[in-house]
Amino acid sequence: MNNSIIGMAAMYILAGLMHFIRPKSYMRIMPRYLPNHKALVYLSGAAEIILGVGLCFPELKNYAIYGIIAMLAVFLLVHFYMLSGEKASAGLPKWILILRIPLQFGLMYWAWYYLN
């Protein structure tokens, strides 16, 4: 297995764990129109962990990659929501919020690159 895909797996596993360690940080940035923020934070954290682990198994890797790409597409809702106002931005500068959008597409490409 390639070191880069191991790094990707570790990144998603750690990011997913953070949803359980610091859920309030994620609940603050949830769009108001989405229901049950706490459950969605935990669900998205679990998804990141499961997909990260899936990258480590050759028979699951492609499924995990498609899941990661779909998950990152859904997370774009949060990134655009954070641009909607001062409170939604969680105190981050606008330039960082704008930079996060192309970063999402870069992460999608990074995952797509490892499809067989």
From TrEMBL:
Domain Methylamine utilisation protein MauE: 6-86
Membrane topology: Multi-pass membrane protein
Keywords of this entry: Membrane, Transmembrane, Transmembrane helix
Protein name per UniProt: MauE/DoxX family redox-associated membrane protein
Location of the protein in the cell: Membrane
One Pfam family hit: MauE
Chief localisation class: membrane
Organism: Winogradskyella rapida
Transmembrane segments: 6-27, 39-57, 63-83, 95-115
